[in-house]
Amino acid sequence: MIHLATEEHVRPKRKNDPPHLRYVPNVVPLIDVLFLLLLFFLLNSHFRQAEGDIPGSLPSAQLRLTGGILKETILTIRPVGQDRLSADYEIDNNAPITDAQELFSHLQARKDSLASDESPLVLNPVGDVRWKFVVEAYNQAYRAKFRNITFRYPTSNE
């Protein structure tokens, strides 16, 4: 025997919850907090200029000059003044050079007088010379077509 559902046996339909019982998060405080965090990180960030690449390679063990030994050129960089705001450059203990363009001219003349293109140039920072002067010396040496550039460990004032 099959019973047909009558109105009294039918389960009442569920009505949707009224709007005041549904949870809807308030996004305004969330947006406020996100903007405060963004502002905090922007104000506490320190933007620095990226350093340039210094091309370099290890010297070859096979490096030889026909008929002799490679003569190295020593470029000494010394700080000038109590605040070290400038530097003097000396090539093989000759007269000091104070200008980067003048340093380039001397290095270019030195490069032209060398017997080999593989002759090393040794940068010798002395004392507490600022790094920007060492980098300037490197840039001028590279511009003068020196390709075998090395650094000597910084020493105290000589």
Brief characterization of the structure:
By secondary structure, the chain is of the alpha/beta class. The chain is built from three helices and four strands. The chain has a domain of 63 residues: Nucleotidyltransferase, domain 5, CATH 3.30.420.
Number of strands: 4
Q: SSE order, as H and E?
A: HEEHEHE
List segments where confidence is low: pLDDT < 50 over at least 5 consecutive residues. Answer: 61-67
- How many helix segments? 3
Side-by-side strand order of the widest sheet: 2-1-3-4
Main features:
Nucleotidyltransferase, domain 5; alpha/beta; 4-stranded mixed sheet; 158 residues; 14% strand
How does this structure look, described?
With 158 residues, this protein is an alpha/beta fold. The protein has a domain at 73-87 and 104-151: Nucleotidyltransferase, domain 5, CATH 3.30.420. It has 3 helices and 4 strands; from the N terminus they run H-E-E-H-E-H-E. The chain has a 4-stranded mixed β-sheet with strand order 2-1-3-4, covered by helices on one side. Strand 1 and strand 2 form a beta hairpin. The model is unreliable at 61-67 (pLDDT under 50).
Topology:
Layout (H helix, E strand, L loop, with lengths): L27 H16 L29 E8 L5 E6 L8 H14 L7 E5 L5 H13 L5 E3 L7
Parallel strand pairs: 1-3, 3-4
Antiparallel strand pairs: 1-2
